[in-house]
């Protein structure tokens, strides 16, 4: 999919996505505002089991609408929590941010935005053969969402952020050989909300079990500033390669879906 088809500016922004991507009009769309008083108690769920691989080569990519780290098929797995007995493999993780601090998260909590949101995208490898196949199924994907607030520099995330100057333009890609533990991107406390939703970028497929961690993690203002310097166009666009100042989709109605709350108030 070429980036001209959709983006985050006026001419190709989220309000236009439904014209080209009919699924974006559905009743199971994401993100949503989490109204904490209306979330139902999930009771007890088994703990998550994170079986993430640390020592392997990853790719850091600028697809034109975020930065993304591809796990390149290494076996990093998540199971437990609300996911039942199925094993979900970590495919990639990426970030959403805003033009200024205090906005940039996709999900909001009681109307409050955060300065960014990390998404760790997993696919159901118990039921499906590939990420692509899983991405079209209602129980195909599980995305862990981590809210970012401005504070101290995040050391583990910095392994990615310091590579961003090398992937300034759409299509740029570098290899990261430094060990990194995706678990270190998560907050200490694994309390969360969960609901059925969609990808937040076109084609907005309704295949995601969302797991939003309640406790935000800190990143520095400098780290966020480096994200905003990424460009959504190719190097050949020259000055036309605009900075990717913000890349979050506004919230959509929860509708009849149940938001479940698992602990940690
Ligand atoms: Zn995302």
Number of domains: 1
Oligomerization state of this entry? single chain
Bound molecules: zinc ion
**What's the CATH superfamily, by name?**
Alpha carbonic anhydrase
What is the CA-based Rg, rounded? 17 Å
Characterize the overall form.
globular
Structural class: mainly beta
- For the record, give the distance between the C-alpha atoms at the N and C termini, rounded to a whole number: 41 Å
Strand proportion, as a percent range, falls in: 25-35%
Helix content: under 10%
Q: Could you characterize the architecture of this molecule?
A:
This protein has 265 residues and is mainly beta. The protein has helices spanning 17-20, 131-134, 155-161, 221-228, and strands at 33-34, 40-41, 48-51, 58-61, 68-70, 77-80, 88-97, 108-109, 116-124, 141-150, 173-176, 192-197, 208-219, 260-262. The strands form 2 sheets. Strands 2, 3, 4, 5, 6, 7, 9, 10, 11, 12, 13 and 14 form a 12-stranded mixed beta sheet that branches. The chain has a two-stranded parallel sheet with strand order 1-8. The longest helix is centred in the C-terminal third of the chain and has 8 residues, at 221-228. The structure holds zinc ion. Residues 94, 96, 119, 200 line the site of zinc ion. Keywords: Lyase, Metal-binding, Zinc.
Put the structure in a nutshell.
The chain has 265 residues and is mostly beta strands.
Topology of helices and strands:
Elements: H1 17-20, E1 33-34, E2 40-41, E3 48-51, E4 58-61, E5 68-70, E6 77-80, E7 88-97, E8 108-109, E9 116-124, H2 131-134, E10 141-150, H3 155-161, E11 173-176, E12 192-197, E13 208-219, H4 221-228, E14 260-262
Parallel strand pairs: 1-8, 2-14, 10-13
Antiparallel strand pairs: 3-6, 4-5, 4-11, 5-7, 6-7, 7-9, 9-10, 12-13, 12-14
Bound molecules: zinc ion.
